[in-house]
């Protein structure tokens, strides 16, 4: 598989929504509970500052995506936030790492100065290891900050990276 990353286009809407929905349905990482369809997905992905899609260059199949947008407004508008989703069938192949690295570069291009993750779930050990590897700084722990799909609350660990 030859993974490349490019900007989201309308033709990606169905595949991107499907990948996004896998993470939402898992209920272990995203705060969102509502699934997207092709129409709502396209609206959501285009309202972001940037949506990047990872695809297999040989097949043009989408295998992951990220959304990038301001974390706040006004005097804190230079801080961005992002979310990443990788298709279940190809997880563990460093696609998430490629997405995060691309996002860091794109964040700079968009004029942001800091990338902040508000809610990295404590049990998301793969993401925690990746963010450590890429030089993100942990900001502490918010006890019970995430409601898992099973109704249990779990700690979240905010992170940031200076761009």
TrEMBL record:
Highest taxon of source: Bacteria
Molecular function terms from GO: acyltransferase activity, transferring groups other than amino-acyl groups
Organism of this sequence: Agathobaculum butyriciproducens
Protein name in the entry: GNAT family N-acetyltransferase
InterPro entries, A to Z: Acyl_CoA_acyltransferase, GNAT_dom, Mito_N-acetyltransferase
Boundaries of every N-acetyltransferase domain copy: 3-160
Pfam families from the UniProt entry: Acetyltransf_1 (PF00583)
